[in-house]
Write a structure and sequence with these properties.
Blueprint: E1 2-9, H1 11-17, H2 19-38, E2 42-47, E3 55-60, E4 63-68, E5 77-85, H3 89-98, H4 101-104, E6 105-111
Antiparallel strand pairs: 1-5, 1-6, 2-5, 3-4
């Protein structure tokens, strides 16, 4: 079953920890990707640029509203994602718990609803 791991954290925590701590966490996340890829569970992962680069789009009463920044003001922001294919929720939770972002924020685990009729992803 496919699961999306949504990695939320407070960017200020990483700023306070410093560039070396952030680099170490990213290296740890890359190692985790390689490990789960070796088990055939890795599909895709990527960090996101800082929340200051976000743009939100809404349609209200037929009008498009485009604003800078995230949809909601929160302490934690979406910082990246993993798409994994594992046998069950417990395996997905085990992987999420090993992500360095779980120590500084939250990793939300959600099953992917697979629609039929979507185009195949492009070859990489």
């Amino acid at each position: 079953m496919k699961y999306m791991l949504l990695c939320y954290d407070d960017e200020k925590v990483w700023e306070q920890a410093g560039p070396a701590a952030l680099k170490e966490a990213m290296e740890e996340a890359v190692e985790l990707c390689h490990e789960i890829q070796g088990k055939g569970q890795y599909l895709l992962a990527s960090p996101l640029h800082p929340v200051a680069t976000a743009t939100s789009v809404r349609i209200r009463e037929g009008r498009r509203l485009v604003t800078d920044g995230p949809f909601a003001e929160t302490r934690e922001q979406l910082g990246g994602f993993y798409l994994i294919d594992v046998p069950d929720l417990n395996t997905a939770i085990s992987i999420a718990a090993r992500h360095p972002g779980a120590r500084a924020g939250t990793v939300e685990v959600r099953p992917v609803y697979e629609l039929t009729g979507l185009p195949d992803p492009p070859p990489q």
